[in-house]
Amino acid sequence: MKRSIFIMMMLAAVIGLSAVTQEVLMNEKNIILEFDNVNIKEIEFIEGNVIVIEHSKNFDVEIIQEKGKMIVKSENIAKVELELPIEKTYTLMENEAKIEFDYSRVTIIEDETTVVEFRDGGLFVTEGEDTVEISADGIIVHDDDEHVEISSSGIIIDSPDEQQRITGFWGQLLGGAINFITKHSIGWIGNNPGFIVKHIVNDGEYHGGVNIDFDSPDKKKITKEFHETFQPKRGCKLNVHNRNGSVEIESWENDYIDIFATLETRKSEEEFDKIKIEVLDNCTIKTTSLKKNPKVSVHYQIKVPDGVKISSISSSNGSIDISECEGKMNLKTSNGSIEIEDSEGSFTANTSNGKIEFENLQGVAEAHTSNGSIKVSGTSNFKKAVTSNGKIILEIDEKLKDDIYLSTSNGSIKIYLDLSLDLKVKASTSNARIDLNGIEITTSVLSSDYISGKINKGGKMITAKTSNGSIKFYKLEK
Asked: Which residues sit opposite 40 in a β-bridge?
């Protein structure tokens, strides 16, 4: 008797945990997908016109079908498995990026000039005329004046005034090693678009939720404006903490702080109720999320009077621009550029997948990014530029106040100098050359890929390091 009861209890438990399968017939070739409070366990591609959604029975998952669009939503976070027809293409939106995918590739379109694509077992990034390709065939980096190619055949660097090919035993060995690492680290990603899309949906800013802005890519943005002014307290150090969007700050002649913000969404006006812009007493402007996954971007334009110091500025998926300001600035974003001009104080800029530009700055400055270029001019107390897969351009027109360190990989370094300055120079590269362009350097060590010496009497040190990219010195034309 007890055994029978136990078996019945086990059967009831299994039935209670059984999956529910729902099918949606979609005849359209292109389908827009929207997920709300959903975690995707797996995406597979099947034949036919029917989308299959499977989820646990103890979750109430609602499927809404509209023309060319399917919405999957749940009150509680539900785990679902999807089977998508192989002959169709699919679109979803994440913040400002449009994601298109099918069974063979995933394309992320960030803006008119930036496209990231996973296909054929590789990663392909295009930003304007610059491209980076990482695939089973090797690594290719191409910008407006230089081409670097690393493959099992060797390493090739081409530029308008230089050609170098390392295709012998050592070149093939090095290129083959990089090719092997590339193939076995990301080659599998491009062959599994379902895996990539699953993580795009699941791995949003809010753990356990979905941080994706889904809607028709042709639907116009809905905007809302925010405007507020306040009188800064004495010794105000301005902090701005944005969650998704750009921040622009400039000085003006008035004695108060002016905040103008544009809120954007592709959903509905109700989405604006999910966030709040706060102006706190301690001179802080903050974008606060009131609910999970607000599909809203906020773009700030802030004007500050003399005496207000800029302190901490942070955001994501947007640029930071500072003009004619002062303060000990710590600037941080991702997937966006950082530009500072005509300002005083100290400057630390950190981003990823975006460029950094410093122009006419008075004070210590450092720049860190990846997959983006760094350009510095008119900043005599500049100390450090570190990037990868991006070039560095440095202009020096007055006596340095400190040593400078420049480092990149798969990118060139260009240094423009006032030839009257007293400097020490140490530069090294691999699989490329160093070109002095007629600049006289008294050297202790000199080769095609390494140089150590001084200009005039010597002074502060400029150290430049790269790999698979050239280092070139030029006379600064005033």
From this structure: 80
49 lies in a domain?
Answer: no
Two tokens, residue 40? 């995707």
- List pLDDT tens digits, range 358-392: 999 999 999 999 888 899 999 989 999 999 888 89
Q: Does one domain contain both 311 and 418?
A: no
- Picking from 64-68, 191-195, 307-311, 321-325, which range would have the lowest pLDDT averaged per residue? 191-195
Residues 6+ apart with CB under 8 A from 468: 141, 148, 150, 155, 157, 409, 410, 430, 431, 432
Structural tokens at position 430: 């691999």
Residue 135: Cβ-neighbour burial (10 angstroms; 0-12, 13-18, 19+): buried
pLDDT at 12: 41
* Strands (E) located in 290-446: 297-304, 309-314, 320-323, 326-332, 338-350, 356-362, 365-368, 374-377, 382-386, 392-396, 404-407, 413-417, 423-428, 434-435, 442-446
Count CA atoms within 13 Å of residue 60 on its CB side. 2
* Amino acid 6: pLDDT: 43
φ/ψ of residue 360, rounded to 5: 55, 60
Tell me the residue range of the domain where 274 lies: 220-326
| Same domain assignment for residues 365 and 317 | no
Condensed to tens digits (0 to 9), the pLDDT of residues 32-56 reads 998 887 888 889 999 988 999 988 7
CA distance 344 to 310: 10
pLDDT band at 406 (very low <50, low <70, confident <90, very high): very high
Do 387 and 316 fall into the same domain?
Answer: no
Task: Provide the greatest CA pair distance for the chain.
Answer: 100
